[in-house]
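lol ok so funny story. i was supposed to be doing the assay writeup but got distracted and ended up predicting the structure for this chain instead. priorities right. anyway since i did it might as well share w the group, maybe its usefull for someone
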Amino acid sequence: MNKLESIARQNKLSLGLVFPIESYKGSIATMENQEKLAKRAEELGFKALWFRDVPFNDPSFGDAGQLYDPWIYMTHIMNQTKDIALASGSIILPLRHPVHTAKSIASLQSLSGGRMIMGIASGDRPIEYPAFNQDIHQRTELFQDSFFYVKALMGDYPRYQSQFYGEVPGSIDLLPKHEHQTSFLVTGHSGQSLEWIAENADGWLYYPRDFRTLRIVMESWRKALNEMNQSWKPFIQSLYVDLSENDDEKPLPIHLGFKSGPEYLITHLKQLEMHGVNHVILNLKYGSRPAEDVVEELGEMVVRNFN
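and the output, tada:
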């Protein structure tokens, strides 16, 4: 089974966690106890662990994400867990050579037994582009070119002429072979039209919005799929959560999410499910309690409502 199918089903919602699985002030996380938390998340029924790709710490941005190279860290966590999906959220395609990206995907898929899901993006930190000698004004074209180059490399003795990254002539092959199907989720718009995403991606990874805006977003997504003659494809979003000790505490807005008790969180997630959201990536950065306690309570009180 395609690993995306294990976390995203039509008319159903599942939950995942993004690294760092901790609350922290400022840009840089401690990355403590992550292996233990990843194991526990799998035991509690979370469907995916998400790994961000942040090449540089830009202090003005305010969040460096998990600190390690995403491929190395996914491999490390793969060895600490059994079956939970390993999802990138998201690999910055224009800032990596497609050959290295494709080889990393094939390697991790082979070693993990097909557990990886590829979230991809064009990047949201303009200051990084000069460090890679890339023109941010071309990131729309760079993203598309890299996407199609990576896809081409998944075939046997691929042939592809890239505008930006070079050429494979059809007389050399990439190893290991892509034995497992890899799903690609475009993050935000990445400079692309929604129709392009609907036609070429396996799903859409978006940001938390109020329910009125979410209805409009979901209508646009369904319309784009229909116009491009595509069947249902999953819609995935992130959500920052500060879980209160008080079960019935009402929501208080925080950046890209809210603080609340478990009761409201369940209600909110049920509403997302009704709107057509298929997977929610929980981020604990702005939490006011230890991540160990929050993960435990989410598993015992919230996750079980969405299996």
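The chain has nine helices and twelve strands. Residues 92 and 121 are 5 Å apart (CA to CA).
back to the writeup now i swear
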